[in-house]
Amino acid sequence: MGVAPVPHIPTGAGRANEPHPPGRAGPPNPGPGLAGPRTVGASGDHLGGRGHPIEAALVAGRGPGWRAAGPGTQTIRVRFDQPYRVRRVWLHFEELAVARTQEFVLRWVTRDGQPAREAVRQQWVFNPAGSTHETENYRVDLWEVTALELVITPDVSDGDARASLAEWRVA
User: How many domains would you assign to the chain?
Assistant: First the structure.
């Protein structure tokens, strides 16, 4: 499964002083977001659905977030043009319509040629009757990062749910 290129996101996107959509709390002190020169790609059988491109999750104010066009595990990969020190990862997921158990894995890659290392593996049960949002705020100390990968399995029971990501911030 290859990686489909996504348009370059402007440097400085996601800065703390950008307004957050009304009615939804933003990341506390999000830092520069996914700032600096980078390339973003996504892989999977069903990439961004109509009106839900990956930029909508990575750049504040760009829309309702990213949503896959169809069911199945999806991978979002952010490559940095220069090694980057990651100290914080903030993720926000939203599911208003489908009860499901989602799993995501966050991996990081360094320039030393080693395989991607797993930083976080997390499951969350969404339920339209009350558990509709998952927000994770990880403090990490990852050096010489050349890429971050977020692998989302939208339904661990292999249902027809689509992967989605409301927001992803890195500092």
Answer: 1
